[in-house]
Amino acid sequence: MTGGSAAHDLMTTGPHGGAFSGRVGWGARPAVVVVDLVRAYTEPDGPFALPDPGPAVAATASLVAAARAAGAPVVWTVVRYTSGMADGGLFVCKVPALAAFAEDAEGGWGELVLKPAAGEPVVPKQYASGFFGTSLAATLRAAGVDTVVVAGVSTSGCVRATATDALNHGFRPLVVRDACADRTPGLHESNLADLDAKYADVVGIGEALEHLR
């Protein structure tokens, strides 16, 4: 390829010379979006129990604290269905354990592990992406947000879908690897690698906290 700028080369071939792994970078106004960090994933007997959620919960707490201190928005998502699951569509057929998030389900599995502060939106959703069929995009745009810092669970499911849809909606998606978790380390790492290649920038907790502060 001849002609064109170095910036164009980076955008089209990525920093390592391949077809993927370009960077979206940080914008001027980040928000932290915490995806589905609820008891169903963090409790040992939960229907979606993760083997080691503690580090991701702690990293998410530090992101939330940094965002609050800097005056950056924090938005939370939860999965929620009506009694009888009529609003669950085919997703609940594919994943029957989602019945734990019905409004009349026992166990309190849909309760957030970390407590939202007053005024922080909690966005209910019925599908994997925090953006699909919800108010999330409008809420972020009204706050002037251009960068979405994604944390939560699970990496291969709702985190991945939310980060991908953030890109689709014109936001810069930054997925914080330390603040996410999945059923196995292999799933976690492989999905982070694919996200970083095609849909988001995957960053460490240190970089995320530095930018938020």
Average pLDDT level: 93
Quaternary status of these chains?
single chain
Structural class given helices, strands, pairing?
Answer: alpha/beta
Q: How much strand? A: 15-25%
Q: Give the SSE string.
A: HEHHEHEHEHEHEH
Number of domains: 1
CATH topology: Rossmann fold
CATH domain class: Alpha Beta
- The count of β-strands is 6
The number of helices is: 8
Indicate the percent of residues in helices.
Answer: 25-40%
Approximate shape: globular
The CATH H-level homologous superfamily: Isochorismatase-like
N- and C-termini, Cα separation: 40 Å
Q: Which second-level CATH architecture applies? A: 3-Layer(aba) Sandwich
Strand order, largest beta sheet: 3-2-1-4-5-6
Radius of gyration: 17 Å
Key features of this structure:
213 residues; alpha/beta; Rossmann fold; six-stranded parallel beta sheet; 8 helices; 17% strand; disordered N terminus
How would you characterize the overall build of this protein?
The chain has 213 residues and is of the alpha/beta class. It has a single domain (27-212), classed as Isochorismatase-like (Rossmann fold). Helix content is 36%, strand content 17%. It is built from eight helices and six strands, in the order H-E-H-H-E-H-E-H-E-H-E-H-E-H. It has a six-stranded parallel sheet with strand order 3-2-1-4-5-6, with helices on both faces. Helix 7 (185-198) links the parallel strand 5 and strand 6. Helix 3 runs parallel beside helix 8 (205-212) and helix 6 runs parallel beside helix 7. The protein is globular and about 45 Å long. The model is unreliable at 1-17 (pLDDT under 50).
